[in-house]
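Q: What does the assembly look like in three dimensions?
Context provided by user:
Components: two
Sequences:
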Amino acid sequence: MDFFVVSLQAAFQLLLSLDAEVLTAVWTSLYTSAAAIVLAAGIGVPVGTALGMGRFPGRRAALTFLNTLMALPTVVVGLILYGFFSRQGPLGTWGLLFTPLAMIAGQMVLAIPIVANYTVAAVAGADPRILTTALTLGAGPLRAAWQLLLEVRFGVMAAVVAGFGRVIAEVGVAMMLGGNIRGYTRTMTTAIALETSKGEFAFGLALGLVLMAVALVVNFFLNLLQQR
Amino acid sequence: MAPILSLRNVELRRGTDFILNIERLDFRVGGFYLLVGPNGAGKSTLLQFLGMLLPPERGRLFFDGTEVRGAVMRQRLRRQITLVEQAPFLFDASVYDNIAFGLRLRGVRGDLQRRRVKTAMDMLGLQGFEKRPAKALSGGEIRRVALARAMVLRPRALLLDEPTAGLDQSILPVFEGCLKSLRDDGVTILISTHDAAQVRRLSGELLGLEGGRLVAPESSPISRLHIA
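A: Here is the predicted structure of the complete assembly.
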């Protein structure tokens, strides 16, 4: 028990002293996840809207595919993209492997199905009169779809927050595509894994506390949005 | 002068049942029509069809003597025909923003927009409602805002699906006064109604609908009971 108490004290000291290495890992996690979720929203929200609104051949198959992607292990996404970004891979010449950009790409792939699926749920559950009202007042199909999204905005925000929660807590993609390079691609999760294996339990615990705080904030907002 | 709207051999089905089967129907410019018929007669479907929200499965629809073909043309014509549905939907915004919605789509902004919204609100007794959230309105207030939102667009044809069902009796004279004023301005109006007293008061041209087919108005149950 002493071990835990001593480690916890050391973890708080690291946090309170604004340890540079801790802060760098926190910053890397936050900015890569934020960039990934912005890009994922740019793709996932329109895809989710189209699938939620439309009745077209292949829709059911597309929904099943999206659901399957949600359960995809992060390490598998990391592995597949590693194949793309490695020197021999089709995108090897871009030199992205072990850079924050590769991590952002991987996290974006992880977040898209979550954002899209939550958006589908929000759009499909919306009042069907929203579209007919917008259309009869003179809106075109795209403007009517935009109005629908405005009406279910809290559901869409919940989709984005849920996606962010998924990517900031993942370790597989960050490890495989970022390479856990100190001060460059080391995130909170990869740092926890590495430092703990080196015996730096207090360091891992400090980052774990930050990660838990982020998870708490994310879930707080998610609950708040889902109640609207 | 060509009728504003004409139907020729129009058919719409749900499964094997006709929900609309009309050989010939013309609406003259500036006409005032009352559509009567029992529940499930196809009144709402006819209004949605005339409001360019439903394409015909068979038959032809003409607007101003020109055949309506394709989604793009229907979208363009929706700017001249406005439908107020039986249970109108107000967007999650203020009363003003709801009423100004269609005007903004038509590029009407600034003072002109404010004047037109104010005129419509005054006509329907909605003074002081501008900033109220639409979601906080009562059923009668929602109907009045929905009518104001349609009136403000000055459509060439206004389609109203049971506009006074459940409306406070004290509001009826205001509501019907607005309809008469629109009729005087040359707007073609088609109202579906169950209210026999309203049919007598508004003294429009009666159209009977039963099982999706036009019937002599006097044979419609509502007419048999209350009008003759």
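Follow-up: The first strand of chain B starts at residue 5 and ends at 14.
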